[in-house]
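Q: I'm teaching a short session on how sequence maps to structure, and I want students to see two examples side by side rather than one. Could you give me a first protein with its sequence written out and its structure tokens following it? Keep the formatting plain so it prints cleanly on a handout.
A: Of course. Example one:
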Amino acid sequence: MIILGLILLLIGIFAKVSILTTIGIVLIVVGAVLFLLGATGRAIGGRKHWY
């Protein structure tokens, strides 16, 4: 999710499309939160690991 967010962010910046930039930032933040929760050992959505 973080990688997809980075790709959309870069496309949005280079193509000057603000909606892609916004979606990219949101995906990066959500991916980082899920990564941090998964790294601490908390179960997310009934799973021990979030892939």
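Q: Perfect. Now a second example for contrast.
A: Example two:
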Amino acid sequence: MRRLLVANRGEIAARVVRTCARLGIESVLAASDADLDALPARTADRVVRLGPGPAAQSYLDPAAVVRAALAVGADAVHPGYGFLSESPALARACADAGLVFVGPSVATLEAVGDKLTARSHALDAGLPVVPGGEAADLAGARAVADRVGYPLLVKAVGGGGGRGMKLVRTAAELPGGLDVAVAEAGAAFGDPRVYLERYVTSGRHVEVQVLGDGTSAVALGDRDCSVQRRYQKLFEEAPAPLLGDDVRAAMADAALALATHLRYRGLGTVELLYDRDRGSFHFLEMNARIQVEHPVTEAVTGLDLVAEQLAVAEGLPLRLHAGDVAARGHAVECRINAEDAARDFRPAPGRIERVVLPVGDGLRVDIGVQAGSVVPPHYDSLLAKLVVHGTDRADALARARTALDLLRIEGVTTTAAVHRALLDDLELVAGGVDTGFFERWQARRRDLAEVS
């Protein structure tokens, strides 16, 4: 690979550019008008204009991405995460233009992008799935609910990330929850279809990183992503704490079974729901792209996952095998967003006035802004990821506390203070929290504020 078009923005664009520099690959950033002078644009070898600021006219336009790649003579396109990273349309357009798409095949993207189809493939591969089914209308939803029971989740067929997802606790809530989920799914993904799944009250969100070359696949360890607000991940760690060796091995085997069944090529993540009460797990979905939280896996394995992703995209066989991968120590990641926690985490765009990054052993900050950067209102609010690696979990958490105390991103409101408070919470420190933890934590904070 000689020249790579990076069709994304923010910290993931800067992250891909960094690996390109190490590998001697020329990086060309495809940037919208809002990002032409952003940090990734200043670090890439070249910059090409992709379109206006709104994502629909730039980062979400497959034709614009392909035109930009061809205009600069790129060999390949890296879509990062979000935007078009799991788009069969972009993968197909790249193939038609003779460009390498850094991701799975069109067939695989179609297979796992539709959540109902992905459930079917998981069942064929022998994985347990959360009980549920499609809800074409209210009558169908009621039929599924009668079989599955309450509480349940209404989920978008064509997407994820918490959009088009609603918790329904009783039969009376079903009509309203269904209407809201259908509307959100249609607006976010252009696909209003939804399905229902049983809601596991004590569920943990655990995922397994996989890498395949279309013939064979390898599991690269697991992560815990259970600290979430409205189904949006806030804090991740690797390996997932307080899992028995038998459960951890079974999860890896399940992820490999699905990757093998799909003849998966590229970097992917099999997301699982671990039921703390029953000690069992179920398949949730597969993300056919690099994840936001991939640095914690890199920290404990010593791998560069972007480099491995680029290698298999070029058609090279796997350079890793099961015996080559071993977790060392523990890593945690805090997502630093431009959001105001005091105002229900409302996005806080503006101009960055000052950035001071902590340094030290086992510390990494993936960041997409610098002093003078403008945080535009068009995109996701993620600014940076603070990644800390320690000898064990307690050491990683202690290092993360120190790093957060030293971090400064001034000019906009961020979630750094939220993470600092989280890391002092006894429930989080104990480990193994479920997906309802953050709401409980917020409630405890409100109660303390009222008492004081």
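Q: What should students look for in example two?
A: Point them to this: The mean pLDDT is 95. Also worth mentioning: The two ends are 60 Å apart (CA to CA).
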